[in-house]
Amino acid sequence: MKYIIAGTDRPDSNTLKVSKIIQGIYKELGEAVEIIDLKELKQHLHDDIHYGKPSEALQPYINKVLGSDGLIVVCPEYNGSMPGILKYFIDHLKFPESFEYRPVCFVGLGAMFGALRPVEHLQGVFGYRNAFIFPERVFMMNVFKIINAEGQLTDELMKSLLVKQAKGFQKFAEALKTYKLDANSFIESKKST
């Protein structure tokens, strides 16, 4: 299963609204994906002060990442970068297996530049951790103007870009899996040796 990481803990965030829109797109494409809402796990990030030794309450979220067929990271721009909670969550994930050979794609949410900077920062982090980064990123400019009160996307161009990304990311992840180049295949091959 793929997971969407809603990369903020802000209540009633556009990030979670967009994550739900993306989840709906994947459902229309015949694939169930789940959302990891950082607002839900926020209370558990401070249960244990040692990186790499998560609390029992945090473990289910870590297991989702470790078993995922791919990650869709939805990231708003906070002060020119990613939200601190997203980086803090990443820092709690096992190294290297959390991202190594795992397909990942990015959707940025912001004002004028659609979160170009935080997505580029994330690409550096995920690249360092040897993830397979899908090259088609989506940058949602002025996101607060294109999401209505009901949480629906009103911009058809943005919707078409999200659909195009989802279709491409499905093919990308499936190709890696077919040739056993993805993280889960890599982990299985290590177990059998």
TrEMBL record:
This protein's GO CC annotations: cytosol
InterPro entries: Flavoprotein-like_sf, FMN_Rdtase-like_dom, NAD(P)H-dep_reductase
Molecular-function annotations in GO: FMN binding; oxidoreductase activity
Segments forming domain NADPH-dependent FMN reductase-like: 4-142
Transmembrane segments: none
Recorded superkingdom: Bacteria
One Pfam family here: FMN_red
PANTHER family, A to Z: CHROMATE REDUCTASE (PTHR30543), NAD(P)H-DEPENDENT FMN REDUCTASE LOT6 (PTHR30543:SF21)
Protein name: Putative flavoprotein
